Amino acid sequence: MLINGQTVIQYVEQLAPKSYAYEGDKIGLHLGTLQKKVKKVMIALDVLENVVDEAIAEGVDLIIAHHAIIFRPLKHLRTDLSAGRLYEKLIKHDIAVYTAHTNLDVAQGGINDWLAEAVGLIDTDVLDVTYTDPLKKLVVFVPETHKDAVYQAITDQGAGCIGNYSHCSFQISGTGTFLPEEGTKPFIGETGKIEQVQEVRIETVIPASKQNAVIKAMKAAHPYEEVAYDVYPLEIQGKGLGIGRIGKLPNPMTLRELALLVKERFDLTGLRVVGPLDQVIKKVAVVGGDGNSFLGKASFRGADVLITGDIYYHNAHDAQADGLNIIDAGHNIEKIMKTKLAEYLRTRFAENGYSTEVIASGVHTDPFQFL
User: Fold this and answer.
1) Residues 120-141 pLDDT 10s
2) What does the pLDDT average to over 229-247?
3) Which one of 65, 149, 195, 340 is most buried, counting C-beta atoms within 10 A?
4) Where on the phi/psi map is residue 275: left (φ > 0), alpha (ψ -120 to 50), or beta?
5) What's the sign of the alpha-carbon dihedral 37, 41, 47, 52?
6) What are phi and psi of 183, to 5 degrees?
7) pLDDT tens per residue, range 257-283
8) What's the 3-state SS for the chain?
9) What's the rounded mean pLDDT across residues 298-312?
């Protein structure tokens, strides 16, 4: 069974909701339509012409990219120039392009977590909080025979997370009453007769960004035609999300050793290092993409080194003066999203019985070379 393009994006946005993105970030559908069946999805960091050629050769229907293909307003669409030629190929071959950028950076289990995992960091935390997911309380009434199924369904979708604890709930038994009116098909009881049922009241918390997915799963697992439930806003703050991660190395190592590890883990031909190569590193911050605006935050949070890309000459001097080491591994380390997002979508497709294929682009898009 092939998946619809809209459903693919629902899975992407369950991982990285649009609300996580920076204001003004060019995310979402850039070209084409999602109102179609999709045989093959390709994950790409950049949508360059050789990436589009790869997609055409692979029979791809939808490209999910990290970097936008339309970032600035178009002044023209000339097919004799490189940008126009790229759009022409996409349109002629009915390939849609969707972008998940800062929302995928911010997402828990997104790019910055993937980078931190690749380096091997432990006890990680968000480096710079940019979004706090509001919490809500969900209350649902379930017949005792189905309480475990409904509880499992909602917690599988992210309900019940408080700090580092998951599957949190409060459950209490009571008596539910209802009268099935004409035209109903009650799971329990008879039409026109008041029914009393032993039910369980399940209370739990849900992040606002996951409310729709939790409610959908709850209704699917619940046996009743009409599910009795309430959703309340809460004053307490939810989990802070944001750009970058900071954590510890399992074992201290020198800056040189860490730089070589980064080079190996991200398959790099070279990188730039700021700081004494023999300095012992314990605490590490990592930011995918351009990390210039996070130097102060990394230093303030006590990082010994920031792993990032695109560091400017004078910013490197400032960091050096502040005692912050830098490993500039390049913007292209974000290519980790190609395999990781592909793995995520393959899992979601398989769980839901879809035969749509997901591939990671094999085209190397880093414009820089080391000689």
Assistant:
1) 999 999 999 998 888 999 999 9
2) 92
3) 65
4) left
5) negative
6) 90, -5
7) 999 999 999 999 999 999 999 999 999
8) CCEEHHHHHHHHHHHCCHHHCCCCCCCEEEECCCCCEECEEEEECCCCHHHHHHHHHHCCCEEEECCCCCCCCCCCCCCCCHHHHHHHHHHHCCCEEEECCHHHHHCCCCHHHHHHHHHCCEEEEEEEEEEECCEEEEEEEEEHHHHHHHHHHHHHCCCCCECCECCCCEEEEEEEEECCCCCCCCCCCCCCCCEEEEEEEEEEEEEHHHHHHHHHHHHHHCCCCCCCEEEEECCCCCCEEEEEEEEEEEEEEEHHHHHHHHHHHCCCCCCEEECCCCCEEEEEEEEEEECHHHHHHHHHCCCCEEEEECCCHHHHHHHHHCCCEEEECCHHHHHHHHHHHHHHHHHHHHHCCCCCEEEECCCCCCCCCCC
9) 98
In single-letter form, the type of residue at position 159 comes to A
Predicted confidence (pLDDT) at residue 187 exceeds the cutoff of 90: no
Measure the CA–CA gap between 127 and 285, rounded to whole angstroms. Answer: 7
Which tokens in the block code for residue 345?
A: 């979508």
Fill in the amino acid letter for 309.
G
What percentage of the chain reaches a pLDDT higher than 70?
100
Question: Does 188 score more than 90 pLDDT?
Answer: no
Give the list of residues 6+ apart from residue 348 with CB closer than 8 angstroms, or none. Answer: 11
pLDDT surpasses 90 at 95: yes
Q: Is 13 left (phi over 0), alpha (psi -120 to 50) or beta?
A: alpha
Q: Rounded distance, CA 250 to CA 218, Å?
A: 40
The structure tokens listed for 48 are 């360059």
**Confidence band, pLDDT 50/70/90 cuts, at residue 339:** very high
End-to-end CA gap in the chain: 48
Per-residue pLDDT of 16-50, as tens digits, reads 999 999 999 999 999 999 999 999 999 999 999 99
Looking at the DSSP assignment, which residues form a beta bridge with residue 40?
357
